[in-house]
């Protein structure tokens, strides 16, 4: 780690192929700023991503990274962080990746409370497969595969996280650059699993959840004087479907990260030249 | 043939069959006798027939046979289930005072010992010790000094206090004395003891122990029969060596968590059985394409689908050789004995890291749940070698950077192996992906680069073919015109079958193949033999297909897929029959 790291050091020389105007540009820039602001550099940072537009992020950022299979980014991040707690681990995904195919992993990653940051680029649509309904699409949102809308209520990711025992729940808006970077930074600094759902509009396929929509409907919980450590207040905000909230909505004061609970604090990449000392005791156990 | 003794305890699951069997097996092992155990169990917690069988001799034993000398029957069904293994003079110990055993009929020619197990156990301090009373009775029948049982009882119950140990010792003596007093009979058995010290362990435990020996620090898995013992073994032990076990939410997560740990530089492993391998298949391709070293253990059981979860089969070979979409370079190692479960696991980690490739360990239920005795030096930790392959550090990384100073984790090399930088290495930041990529790891659809990367990854297999040892293990008569080939847990039964066959003046040459991919070229051996039989526990002859493919010769197949492992005497008969048929 060095203090002279700039956020642009996290930028690769690969030009993004996201559509012009895509919310993911802002989401990524905020992540890079947050990483630099928290004193990380590309060589101690590991970014994991799944499949979809969000999954491309590892290509456009410069760090250690793995671009995995659809929905499984959180398990990969879990393995990276537990095997080397010195690394700053950031997992990025989309709403399909995280709340559909990866929903099971989301619940269990939240429960484990591994000290990493999970940023979900929520555009409420499947973008890369060209516009099908996602788990966060509105009930009446018409798409090529749901001509009359999904007719199912959307997943409430924040509620899912809260019900799973999350210790940090936040939401941000990718184009509100300063605020978004601040929120991701808080997630990084949180001692445990930091979850940030980011409104990251899809300008090509979603003409409902647009920049204008979010600008008009977004309420910053910080401006409302919300106490993030008040569980009941957090629950109320999270279940309030009438507004879109931004900010840190819930942060547990009792968060004990997985590594502390289980005593996992060593860099496991270094091993002995032969069997570890004392290994013969393993054989003697079978007498 | 070693002068062996075959003993079993059977009853309902929940009757303490397993722990009782294990106590007796440990007593024999500690008395310097070789032991080979097998389990017959159903996929349920309580109820259903279950049995623990112990074969023992002074000479090494490595299989089961079709014979039972002493049977402790806790239920009438236990006798029915084992009728074909019981013989004239077999001893059946049962508790005739138990309501369900009151009217039990001892088959003609066999010796029934009606021992009031429960009543004697109560006299010793509690009905729960009735199985131990039975062990004492068995000691008397087998002429096995009961003092040998004491240390096994101490090991089993020592942590629960001296009183409990003493009560159990007393219970055993009551069983012994009852038989001695009530049945004035010479049972013809005498279990000799020796000064040798053996260890007694099963294949799952050997895999777990091999992993720790090889420096594996990270394990993620999801419980599944018969692979769960690997996770249970590692839990609590790997931590003592600075490692960690995660019980994942499913197999998809398990292999991805293990992959993450491997990317962070840890030696990492997951273990599962066939259904779990299916779920892991997609990520297996990612592991290979991202060139991550990972060990994946498949403890095979009867399939397809849920099949028979507690029964033996070697049905996943094709899955391990070919499973996954696209073409995936990989190694598949198949331990043939319990001790080889240890050594092949050590080897798997070295191959995985040297070649940055996923490695399957193809174990099976018979290896996993069977316990066998070994001299402790079989697992000599000083013999363990660690090879981590082309890991670069901050100095050496420079030679693997392009003109812009970017690290090339997928550099095209002559041997197919690229450099590897653990995260945290300065100037090493890079991405890897399951997408086809260039030397930097970035997505590409460039036709030339695609071909170069595919060739590079496949070249690792070719390099390994040349640099590593893929030889089979050879037994029997090297000049015989009868060649038997097998893989996996059949080796022990086959090795003893050779001795049965010798008695009948049938000679065979036997090759046991521990490497399934890459594997030895058996063309010369197959061509020089008159008769070739491939022995395996599946219906279609998956390995026989592979041998035919490799050698361009037709082979005979001997397949067993009833869920039960090969028994040595039965296998000898089957081979004789196959040879006779071939001669006609």
UniProtKB/TrEMBL annotation, chain A:
Q: Which UniProt keywords apply?
A: Iron, Iron-sulfur, Magnesium, Metal-binding, Oxidoreductase, Thiamine pyrophosphate
Task: Name what cofactor the protein needs.
Answer: Mg(2+); [4Fe-4S] cluster; thiamine diphosphate
Q: Where is the Thiamine pyrophosphate enzyme TPP-binding domain?
A: 51-198
Keyword tRNA-binding in annotation: no
InterPro entries named in the record: 2-oxoacid:Fd_oxidoreductase, OFOB, PFO_beta_C, THDP-binding, TPP_enzyme_TPP-bd
Protein's recorded name: 2-oxoacid:ferredoxin oxidoreductase subunit beta
Q: Where is this region: Disordered?
A: 131-153
Instruction: Using the record for this protein, list the coiled-coil segments as residue ranges, or answer none.
Output: none
Q: Could you name the domain of life of the organism this protein comes from?
A: Archaea
Please, one GO biological process term? cellular respiration
Domain (Pyruvate ferredoxin oxidoreductase beta subunit C-terminal): give its ranges: 202-263
A molecular function (GO) held by this record is:
oxidoreductase activity, acting on the aldehyde or oxo group of donors, iron-sulfur protein as acceptor
Q: Which Gene3D superfamilies match?
A: 3.40.50.970
- The organism encoding this protein is Halobellus rubicundus
From TrEMBL, chain B:
Identify the residues that the record assigns to the Pyruvate/ketoisovalerate oxidoreductase catalytic domain, covering every copy.
13-176
EC number in record = 1.2.7.3
Name the domain of life this protein comes from.
Answer: Archaea
Segments forming domain Pyruvate flavodoxin/ferredoxin oxidoreductase pyrimidine binding: 210-455
Pfam families tied to this protein: POR, POR_N
Q: Which SUPFAM superfamilies match?
A: Pyruvate-ferredoxin oxidoreductase, PFOR, domain III, Thiamin diphosphate-binding fold (THDP-binding), TK C-terminal domain-like
What GO annotations for molecular function exist for this entry? 2-oxoglutarate synthase activity
Asked if the record carries the keyword Metal-binding, the reply is no
Q: Which Gene3D superfamilies match?
A: 3.40.50.920, 3.40.50.970, Pyruvate-ferredoxin oxidoreductase, PFOR, domain III
| InterPro entries listed in its UniProt record | 2-oxoacid/accept_OxRdtase_asu, Pyruvate:ferred/Flavod_OxRd, Pyrv/ketoisovalerate_OxRed_cat, Pyrv_Fd/Flavodoxin_OxRdtase_N, Pyrv_flavodox_OxRed_cen, THDP-binding, Transketo_C/PFOR_II
Reaction equations catalysed: 2 oxidized [2Fe-2S]-[ferredoxin] + 2-oxoglutarate + CoA = succinyl-CoA + 2 reduced [2Fe-2S]-[ferredoxin] + CO2 + H(+)
One Gene Ontology term of the biological-process aspect is: organic acid metabolic process
Q: Is Coiled coil included in the keywords of this UniProt record?
A: no
Q: Residue ranges under compositional bias (Basic and acidic residues)?
A: 447-476
Q: Its quaternary structure?
A: Heterotetramer of the KorA, KorB, KorC and KorD subunits.
What is the designated name of this protein?
A: 2-oxoglutarate synthase subunit KorA
Species name: Halobellus rubicundus
């Amino acid at each position: 780690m060095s203090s002279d790291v700039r956020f642009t050091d996290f930028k690769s020389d690969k030009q993004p192929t996201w559509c012009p105007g895509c919310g993911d540009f802002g989401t990524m820039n905020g992540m890079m700023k947050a990483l630099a602001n928290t004193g990380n550099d590309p060589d101690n940072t590991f970014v994991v991503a799944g499949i979809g537009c969000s999954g491309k992020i590892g290509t456009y950022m410069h760090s250690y990274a793995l671009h995995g299979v659809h929905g499984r980014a959180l398990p990969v991040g879990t393995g990276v962080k537990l095997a080397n707690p010195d690394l700053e681990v950031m997992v990025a995904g989309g709403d399909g990746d995280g709340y559909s195919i990866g929903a099971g992993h989301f619940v269990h990653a939240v429960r484990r409370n591994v000290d990493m940051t999970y940023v979900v680029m929520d555009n409420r649509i499947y973008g890369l497969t060209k516009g099908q309904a996602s788990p966060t699409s509105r009930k009446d949102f018409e798409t090529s595969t749901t001509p009359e809308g999904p007719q199912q209520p959307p997943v409430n990711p924040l509620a899912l996280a809260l019900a799973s025992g999350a210790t940090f729940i936040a939401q941000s808006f990718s184009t509100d650059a300063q605020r978004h970077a601040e929120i991701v930074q808080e997630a990084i600094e949180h001692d445990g699993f930091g979850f940030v759902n980011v409104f990251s509009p899809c300008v090509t396929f979603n003409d409902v959840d647009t920049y204008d929509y979010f600008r008009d409907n977004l309420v910053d919980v910080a401006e409302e004087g919300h106490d993030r450590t008040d569980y009941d207040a957090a629950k109320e905000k999270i279940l309030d479907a009438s507004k879109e909230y931004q900010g840190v909505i819930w942060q547990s004061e009792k968060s004990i990260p997985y590594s502390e609970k289980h005593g996992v604090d060593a860099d496991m990449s270094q091993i002995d030249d032969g069997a570890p000392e004392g290994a013969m005791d393993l054989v003697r156990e079978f007498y | 043939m070693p002068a062996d003794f075959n003993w079993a305890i059977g009853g309902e699951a929940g009757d303490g069959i397993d722990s009782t069997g294990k106590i007796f097996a440990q007593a024999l092992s500690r008395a310097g006798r070789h032991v080979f155990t097998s389990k017959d169990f159903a996929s349920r917690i309580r109820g259903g027939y279950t049995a623990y069988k112990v074969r023992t001799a002074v000479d090494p034993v490595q299989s089961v046979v079709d014979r039972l000398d002493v049977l402790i029957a806790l239920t009438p069904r236990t006798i029915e289930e084992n009728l074909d293994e019981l013989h004239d003079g077999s001893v059946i110990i049962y508790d005739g005072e138990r309501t369900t055993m009151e009217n039990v009929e001892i088959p003609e020619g066999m010796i029934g010992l009606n021992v009031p197990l429960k009543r004697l156990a109560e006299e010793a301090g509690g009905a729960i010790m009735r199985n131990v009373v039975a062990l004492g009775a068995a000691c008397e029948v087998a002429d096995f000094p009961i003092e040998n049982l004491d240390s096994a009882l101490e090991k089993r119950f020592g942590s629960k206090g001296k009183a409990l140990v003493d009560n159990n010792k007393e219970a055993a003596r009551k069983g012994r004395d009852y038989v001695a007093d009530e049945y004035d009979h010479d049972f013809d058995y005498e279990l000799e003891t020796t000064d040798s010290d053996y260890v007694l362990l099963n294949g799952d435990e050997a895999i777990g122990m091999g992993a720790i020996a090889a420096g594996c620090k990270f394990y993620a898995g999801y419980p599944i029969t018969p692979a769960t013992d690997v996770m249970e073994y590692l839990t609590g032990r790997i931590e003592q060596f600075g490692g960690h076990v995660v019980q994942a939410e499913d197999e998809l997560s398990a292999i991805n968590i293990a992959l993450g740990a491997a990317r962070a530089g840890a030696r990492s492993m997951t273990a599962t059985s066939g259904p779990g391998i299916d779920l892991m298949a997609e990520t297996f391709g990612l592991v290979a394409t991202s060139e991550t070293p990972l060990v994946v253990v498949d403890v095979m059981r009867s399939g397809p689908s849920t099949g028979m979860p507690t029964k033996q089969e070697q049905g996943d070979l094709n899955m391990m050789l070919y499973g996954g979409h696209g073409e995936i370079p990989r190694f598949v190692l198949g331990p043939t004995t319990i001790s080889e479960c240890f050594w092949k696991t050590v080897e798997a980690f070295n191959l995985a890291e040297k070649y940055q490739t996923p490695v399957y360990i193809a174990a099976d239920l018979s290896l996993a749940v069977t316990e066998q005795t070994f001299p402790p030096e079989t697992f000599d930790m000083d013999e363990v070698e660690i090879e981590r392959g082309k890991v670069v550090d901050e100095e050496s990384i420079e030679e693997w950077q392009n003109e812009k100073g970017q690290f090339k984790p997928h550099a095209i090399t002559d041997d197919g192996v690229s450099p590897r930088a653990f995260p945290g290495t300065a100037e090493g930041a890079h991405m890897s992906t399951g997408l086809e990529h260039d030397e930097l790891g970035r997505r590409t659809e460039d036709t030339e680069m695609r071909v170069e990367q595919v060739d590079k990854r496949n070249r690792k297999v070719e390099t390994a073919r040349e640099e590593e040892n893929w030889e089979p293990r050879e037994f029997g008569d090297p000049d015989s015109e009868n060649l038997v080939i097998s893989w996996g847990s059949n080796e022990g039964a086959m090795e003893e079958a050779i001795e049965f066959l010798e008695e009948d003046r049938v000679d065979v040459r036997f090759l046991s193949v521990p490497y399934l991919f890459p594997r030895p070229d058996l063309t010369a051996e197959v061509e020089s033999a008159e008769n070739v039989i491939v022995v395996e526990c599946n219906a279609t002859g998956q390995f026989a297909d592979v041998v035919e493919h490799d050698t361009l010769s037709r082979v005979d197949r001997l397949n067993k897929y009833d869920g039960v492992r090969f028994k040595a005497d039965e296998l000898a008969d089957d081979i004789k029959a196959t040879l006779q048929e071939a001669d006609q």
